[in-house]
Amino acid sequence: MTPTAALDAVVADVRFHPGKTGPDGFFTALHHIGLLSHLSLRFAGDAHYHLDSAHETGSSWRPVEALTDAAVPLSRAQYHYAQAMVPLAALSKPNPDTSTAARLHDIEHHCALRMHLHAAAQSLDDARTALRTPTPARRPSPSAPSQVATSEQTASRRAR
Fold this sequence. Notes:
By secondary structure, the protein is mostly helical. It has helices spanning 3-16, 23-57, 62-92, 100-132, 147-159.
């Protein structure tokens, strides 16, 4: 499975099983954290594989850059799911208190939950964009010698 297909599968699972309050929502958030952890680990491993290949054969750096660029928003999504655990836990407790203060407290937890779930979904969209958008080619740094200068230096050494 390609990295893009793996990410699409995780995004489909996240959208098919949205976060909600109650014990099922807590389990769902744990499941999403597990999927994101596994995917981040896979992206890091694939990037390492491509990095070795790029060093040995001089092949394209694009896969390395795409995978590492996508790993950052994946980590952010994982962070937001972990943050969503706090309001999920608070909203999962049975609460016989029906006072105005208790209801306002629940509203705060619902708002925090929605905010973190929305931020996680946005981070997953960012990861998709990072995988699909080509990275611009890097220019050599000004301090690095150019290829022409290096060739001239090599030629002058041979002549000596």
